[in-house]
Write a structure and sequence with these properties.
The protein is an alpha/beta fold. The protein has helices at about 1-15, 15-30, 30-70, 70-100, 105-115, 120-125, 150-165, 170-180, 185-195, 245-260, 280-295, 350-355, 370-380, 415-420, 420-425, 460-485; strands spanning about 230-240, 265-270, 300-305, 305-310, 325, 330, 345-350, 385, 395, 435-440, 445-450. The chain folds into 2 domains: about 1-60 and about 460-485, no CATH class; about 70-90 and about 135-455, Alpha-Beta Complex (Spore Coat Polysaccharide Biosynthesis Protein SpsA, Chain A), CATH 3.90.550.10. The strands form 2 sheets. An 8-stranded mixed sheet has the order 8-5-7-3-1-2-11-10. It is found in: Membrane.
Amino acid sequence: MYRLRTVLNVHRRTYGILPAVCLRATHVVSRPRYQAAVLSVFLIVMLLWVVFAIDSMVLRSILLFTHHNSPAVCKEANLIREQFQERQNRINKEIEMQDQILSSQDYLTNEVRNKLHPITTLILEAGSRICPYHSNTLVGLLQVNEDESTIDADLANLESKFKNRVSVYNRESRYKRNSKNTDLENDDNQDSQLENQSTTHYGNFTQMQFSVSTVAPPIGVISPSNCHPHRRTAIVIPYRNRLQHLKVFLRHLHPFLQRQEIEYGIYVINLAGNGMFNRAKLLNIGFTEALRHYGKYDCIIFHDVDLFPEDDRNIYTCSSQPKHMSVAINLYDYILPYEEIFGGVTALTPDQFKLVNGYPNAYWGWGGEDDDMSKRIKSKCMSIFRISTEKARYVMVNHQHGNEKGNEIQVERFNLLKGSMNRQPYDGLSSLNYTVHHRLFGVLYNNITVTIGQHTMKSLTTTEKVLNLLIVLLCVFLIYLLFFK
């Protein structure tokens, strides 16, 4: 020990403390009895490094395979899919019987009427009908008007039109007022009871809520004027400081949705302040607030404000599987960028969205949350449904993504994607927290202004880079000792 201390002191005075330690370590490990130990340490470190590098590719793939093919995981997804299909079959059958009655086939009328749901009977007696599954007012390919010179006047005319229009529920109320029973409040309560009753006696679809209603929705939800809708869609838009895009979007989308004869509401989730933007968290808030406002929505569409549909045959409703709607975008030459993409415009039923625990809240800045949602969908035994590129065409406003202040590119997104499955049970709807500053329900859209806190998650990227750097330096040092000294 005394000799080692003496040598270190000499080297320290000559070269400095760090070179002295390195030189002495070289003398020690250059002896044969230490070389086996150093080689063992080197091999262990290299093995740990290799395991650390491939765990995201191998281990997560194994977990994804076993999780995706687990009967327990698939059971709930299959149940949601079956219930969705049953509702669709039920309403299709109801519309088919309605059309038979309206076609004046007298010999079928009495037999068919006995099979109708009571709500359908009330609608037909009022001189109305259930909206057809395929609207005959669709025009197909559209021209997106991006001219901003007349945008304010166009929106004012559209708002005036909505205020003066008579919805199908107003027609229903007028029918009740002229009938023998003039107690409209009691009628509405009776209609609500009919909607919630079991359909055991109206087919093989038990304990299933009927899709058609005679009760008017709240302010902020727009209904067709000539038929009772059986599809109800909430459009959720994450938003901050994009007023001109929003105006063009509203002018284009309202006539588009009216031709599809669905009941819909547009929810603009406005992020207050200048903090970091979090699209995924705003979408979770939009989902929560939309159902809080109107609990009858059977489809939630998550929509970027800079995307405008070009074909009204792209129906804004959900499917038995999560639906990717913006398949073909002009800036990408109407080609799907990559197979796993699930961004832009997407549609999920409330049950599907709850099953995957919504979007992850961990993505601050631009990018990553849509690919994470794709992983979540597949991990819950579901698949992504896309319609043909002929109909799923969109125009995107040409602007630079990831360059806006507060919405810079998410540099951690690839590392977050690696841990997607691990975070899914606790990162999403179950961990959502936010503050609502105000809720304004209007004619053209519903404005919900919120704050969502600040980005406080520790950077995983920096930690991994430091660990990798330390491992590399250690390995280089050991190689130097073994082969060059």
